[in-house]
TrEMBL record:
The keyword Ligase applies. Residues 117-451 form the GS catalytic domain. One of its GO terms (biological process) is glutamine biosynthetic process. Keywords: Ligase. This is GS catalytic domain-containing protein. GO terms for molecular function: glutamine synthetase activity. Belongs to the glutamine synthetase family. It comes from the Eukaryota. PANTHER family: GAMMA-GLUTAMYLPUTRESCINE SYNTHETASE, TYPE-1 GLUTAMINE SYNTHETASE 1. It comes from Saponaria officinalis. The lineage of its organism: Eukaryota, Viridiplantae, Streptophyta, Embryophyta, Tracheophyta. The keyword Coiled coil does not apply.
Length: 451
């Protein structure tokens, strides 16, 4: 993309010399980004050192109700501290006089809380580094819909921004002012965007972010999601990353591409003649992810609506298999331009969606990959065809959140690095999601206002 992509934006992004307010962000168990807002002078005088108080119950809220499910052990009793990570402090580009920062959760300053998602990712990444001298590099492709709110007979309806097809130039023309502003905002936050295009849904787009070290990639995704929603609001639209906001249209994912680095070098890639074009380390890591994928879905497809998206023949990875450049496989190995023919630079996980907490999602992926490395797991043969056409030869992944929770219950590898308390909170929140959606078949329609 050229540097002048955002040159003609209608919404001008100011970079104020001073700020009056700071938004302090965290992402909860259900994947929702939330914030507290404080005056800038208080932020620098008090909060950077002492943090800001937050009830522990804030890590036990569901996708639709701001109330705590039973048995999470995160109740009205108990408080933590949100400690700003000053390396993530940024000027907010879509408004004036404000900054934003991501926060870690501590019991008290200097003592990380077991249920902090950012800390869970740090633990998993550190284990991978200590045991194998490896780092995970991650790149996200986030899909979203642009919707136009219209009032009819006193009720709000959400209409698709347009009805153009996949990769339509007309769609880009129509959305160009919005997409230019999104790109300009990402540039100001130092978040590189690799490409953007219209998707197959009505008013749907996909934005690919540049890959980076896993913790930074998760931070960038949190901010990119905020950019997408905020810029859409500036243009009078609603942007949603919900997995399946309209059951009659295409779903939205947040595909994640994973590779392994050793001392800054991609060691997921094999050498000429290596099996599948993947290194031995890469095959074992990917085999771990594939083996534990049914349980992983409880982290990366965290709502019942996620499973409305993960369906056969929808390029969403509904089957428990992997394939070479096979977009119907749940894991797809990729050989992008610039990689030697026959070699693979990364693999894509299709099930990851926009309701996923990126820290918990990446942490669970690393835990699964670690198990593959520790136990030298081997990849089965790749599936080269559409698995739905193989007449039962390939198993479906869990078809519901209930099924993925059952798989998680039977899979014991996650507790050690994620922690007993955090895993219990995640499980109880997911169980509550199942109950909430079972009570109301139209509950998913509210996700557009939360994701």
């Amino acid at each position: 993309m050229s540097d002048n992509f955002g040159e003609n934006s209608k919404v001008v992004f100011q970079q104020p010399h001073t700020s009056t307010l700071v938004r302090i962000f965290w992402v909860d168990t259900s994947g929702q980004c939330r914030c507290r807002v404080v005056p800038t002078n208080r932020f620098h005088d008090v909060i950077t050192k002492n943090g800001i108080g937050l009830t522990v119950a804030c890590m036990a809220l569901t996708s639709l109700r701001d109330c705590v499910p039973p048995e999470t052990d995160l109740t009205a009793t108990g408080e933590i501290r949100l400690i700003p990570d000053l390396s993530t402090l940024r000027t907010i580009p879509w408004t004036t006089g404000e900054e934003m920062v991501l926060a870690d959760m501590h019991l008290r300053p200097g003592e990380p809380w077991e249920c902090c998602p950012r800390e869970a990712l740090k633990r998993a990444a550190e284990a991978l580094k200590q045991e194998f001298n490896l780092e995970v590099d991650a790149g996200f492709e986030t899909e979203f819909y642009l919707l136009r709110p219209v009032i009819r007979e006193g009720k709000e309806e959400l209409l698709p921004f347009d009805s153009t097809p996949y990769c339509s130039a007309s769609a880009f023309d129509a959305a160009a002012p919005i997409l230019h502003d999104m790109f300009a905002a990402l540039q100001s936050l130092n978040i590189p965007m690799e490409q953007v295009h219209s998707e197959a849904g009505k008013g749907q787009f996909e934005m690919a972010l540049e890959h980076s070290e896993c913790e930074r990639a998760a931070d960038n995704l949190v901010y990119a999601r905020e950019v997408i929603r905020a810029v859409a609001r500036k243009h009078g639209l609603i942007a949603t990353l919900a997995p399946k906001y309209n059951l009659d249209d295409i779903g939205s994912g947040c595909h994640v591409h994973i590779s392994l680095l050793e001392n800054g070098v991609n060691v997921f890639t094999g050498t000429p003649g290596s099996n599948h074009g993947i290194s031995k380390l890469g095959q074992e890591f990917m085999a771990g992810v594939l083996f534990h994928l049914p349980a992983l879905l409880a982290f990366i497809a965290p709502t019942p609506n996620s499973y409305d998206r993960i369906q056969p023949d929808m390029w969403s990875g509904a089957y428990h298999c992997w394939g070479k450049e096979n977009r119907e496989a749940s894991l797809r190995t990729a050989c992008p331009p610039g990689i030697e023919d026959g070699l693979v630079s990364n693999f894509e996980i299709k099930s990851f969606d926009g309701c996923t907490n990126p820290y918990l999602g990446l942490a669970s992926i690393i835990v699964a990959g670690l198990d593959g490395l520790r136990n030298h797991l081997r990849l089965p043969p790749p599936i080269e065809a559409n698995p739905s056409e193989l007449k039962g030869e390939v198993k479906r992944l869990p078809k519901s959140l209930s099924e993925s929770l059952e798989a998680l219950h039977n899979d014991k590898i996650f507790e050690d690095l994620l922690g007993t308390k955090l895993l219990k909170a995640i499980t109880c929140v997911r169980k509550a999601e199942v109950e909430i959606y079972a009570e109301n078949s139209e509950a998913y329609k509210q996700l557009v206002y939360r994701y």
